[in-house]
Design brief:
This protein has about 90 residues and is mainly beta. It has 1 helix and 7 strands; from the N terminus they run αβββββββ. The strands form 3 sheets. The chain has a 3-stranded antiparallel sheet with strand order 5-6-7, with no helix packed on it. A two-stranded antiparallel ribbon has the order 1-2. A hairpin with a 3-residue loop joins strand 3 (about 50) and strand 4 (about 55-60).
């Protein structure tokens, strides 16, 4: 009456996966820490560092601010004083 169906008949047979070889080697992007130092003559100067974290942590420079990624310290470039209107009291 009832027939036993095997996995092969039901379409659930063992699937063979194609073996893949080794992945090709990808070079990691180079560190940008060397861009934070400048050599002028015999002296090496460092870029601006974080006042909270100390001289081991450099600040990121953006268009209008400098930012520390470790402690989230930020310094904003001040607006020119010419554009600020002062209210005089008489």
């Amino acid at each position: 009456m009832f027939q036993k169906q095997t996995n092969e008949k039901m379409g659930k047979g063992k699937k063979s996966k194609a073996k893949k070889g080794k992945k090709p080697h990808k070079n990691k992007p180079t560190s940008k820490k060397y861009s934070k130092y400048k050599v002028e003559g015999d002296k090496v100067t460092r870029a601006k560092f974080c006042p909270r974290c100390g001289p081991g942590v450099f600040l990121m420079t953006a268009k209008d601010r400098v930012y520390c990624g470790k402690c989230h310290y930020a310094e904003f470039a001040g607006k020119p004083k010419e554009n600020i209107k002062e209210v005089k009291k008489e």
